[in-house]
Design brief:
22 strands, 33% helix, 24% strand, binds flavin-adenine dinucleotide
Length: 463
């Protein structure tokens, strides 16, 4: 193999693999170093994709058991085949990770299997599983090594009963009682999966609300809906310890009775992956969380070394990593590249879904920005009624003077898809009136977005 490259990307997650493909399209000679046999990173192997596969499967199971009667469909003898459900998830992961390998071949990206370490500017040493090393020389290095689960003092992870999201994607049986530590996105999604399949689920959260950081009105509504589904919450509760006890586990919470359970999921956040990368030796500056510090052009303090995705500042989201990967290699190849952080959506794939883009009401108040708000409930939308998904609402926040859209917050069926329209509108600098005047197909859930935009102006029609 010719070991001389224009760009060596370390990490083949959504940030790294997308950057590698885009760089190859821009005619750079690219290698991508990945220590795992399967490409696609956390997202494809143990994150976004397997969790969404299980969310969909568990939703269908739950719907078949409880919801189809409302449509005049009588289903008897619905049974869970957990092994079959897990296989479907694994098949999906295999197809998609295989797809990335295919895209590498198609675009001429050189795939290097092993652990990458920066040995100096322009030098990456790759150590394979059997201890063999090879050195790649390159004009530029892109760190896209992602993140892994943040540990919590006192929680004794054993890779089995007390585990992370990775274990919770593959429990071999439905837990009787699962305790989720952390009411963030991952905790709520995986808690929902196992609750739908029959587990009792208790979510313990240090803050006094779920989904910290998300628009408060939306968070409050989400908690009410999830509680109705059967999830139980202990908020403002500090977990002191979680450990094995006999066949099960015990979770100790400050000032409360300990909880006995058979599975614990630790989901209190993720930390950047920089161990063994050689950053200190090369002099790459890191922040307090261990993140790689970059400027607006993804440059570290060492010339020729860049970083993107979960390993740098900002939201830990696959599509944020992708945008950064593309912008970074476009900057390297052409001198131009940009990410519009203001219009990056975030989605919680519970049922109903919870989606946000732009600023929350709290953030606007804090920044002293005068805003107006329009909201519209799913219960007043014809399509939502027809498909039996009337829970939730759309809220659009627009500048009080200019009407420019500043944020949107949606809880409701397919919110994760509906938010895309607002994200595009925001990227184009649209006003709420622009959104309201655009024709939306009838009957469609997207009409809730149009109506919320109307409500931010003179008023919605259908309420
Ligand atoms: C359960 C779960 C569900 C999630 N759901 C969503 C979702 O629905 N939507 C969303 O946007 N985000 C979701 N995320 C977050 C998302 O997975 C991450 O934000 C995203 O994967 C980050 O991409 P990345 O490319 O920065 O890093 P990663 O995807 O973490 O990839 C980094 C890669 O680098 C490799 N690597 C690390 N160090 C080295 C080294 N030294 N040498 C070689 N290879 C190395 C790792 O093996 C890994 O494959 C979820 C995460 C989890 C855990």
């Amino acid at each position: 193999m010719d070991q001389q490259f224009d760009l060596v990307v370390i990490g083949a997650g959504p940030g790294g693999y997308v950057a590698a493909i885009r760089a190859a399209q821009l005619k750079l000679k690219v290698a991508c170093v990945e220590s795992e046999a399967r490409l696609g990173g956390t997202c494809l192997r143990v994150g976004c994709i397997p969790s969404k596969a299980l969310l969909e499967a568990s939703h269908q199971y739950h719907a078949a058991k409880h919801d189809l009667g409302a449509f005049g469909i009588e289903v008897k003898g619905v049974e869970l085949n957990l092994a079959g459900m897990l296989k479907k998830k694994t098949d999906t992961v295999e197809q998609l990770t295989g797809g990335v390998a295919h895209l590498f071949k198609k675009n001429g990206v050189t795939r290097v299997l092993g652990h990458g370490k920066i040995a100096g500017p322009g030098k990456v040493v790759v150590t394979s599983g059997d201890g063999k090393t090879e050195e790649l020389t390159t004009k530029n290095i892109l760190i896209a090594t992602g993140s892994s689960v943040a540990k919590l003092a006192g929680v004794e992870l054993d890779g089995d009963r007390i585990g992370t999201s990775t274990e919770a994607l593959s429990y071999p049986e439905v837990p009787k009682h699962m305790v989720v530590i952390g009411a963030g996105v991952i905790g709520l999604e995986l808690g929902s999966v196992w609750q739908r399949l029959g587990a009792k689920v208790t979510v313990v959260e240090y803050f006094d609300r779920i989904l910290p950081g998300m628009d408060t009105e939306l968070g409050t509504l989400a908690k009410r809906i999830l509680e109705k589904q059967g999830l139980s919450f202990k908020l403002g509760a500090r977990v002191k310890a979680a450990r094995r006890s006999g066949d099960g586990c015990v979770v100790e919470i400050e000032g409360q009775e300990p909880i006995q359970c058979d599975r614990v999921l630790l989901a209190t956040g993720r930390v950047p992956n920089t161990d063994g990368l050689g950053l200190a030796e090369v002099g790459v500056a890191q922040g307090k969380r261990g993140d790689v510090i970059v400027d607006d052009h993804f440059r570290t303090n060492v010339p020729g070394i860049y970083a993107i995705g979960d390993v740098i500042r900002g939201a830990m989201l696959a599509h944020k990593a992708e945008e950064e990967g593309i912008a970074c290699v476009e900057l390297i190849a052409t001198g131009y590249g940009h990410v519009d952080y203001n219009s990056i959506p975030s989605v919680v794939y519970t049922h109903p879904e919870i989606a946000s883009v732009g600023r929350s009401e709290e953030q606007l108040k804090e920044a002293g920005i005068a805003y107006k708000k329009g909201s519209f409930p799913f219960s007043a939308n014809g399509r939502a009624k027809a498909i039996g998904n009337t829970e939730g609402r759309v809220k659009i926040l627009a500048d009080a003077k200019t009407d420019r859209i500043l944020g949107a917050h949606i809880i409701g069926h397919a919110a994760g898809d509906l938010i895309a329209e607002v994200a595009v509108a925001m990227a184009f600098g649209a006003s709420a009136e622009d959104l309201a005047r655009a024709s939306h197909a009838h009957p469609s859930l997207a009409e809730t977005v149009k109506e919320a935009a109307l409500a931010a102006g003179d008023g919605a029609i259908h309420i």
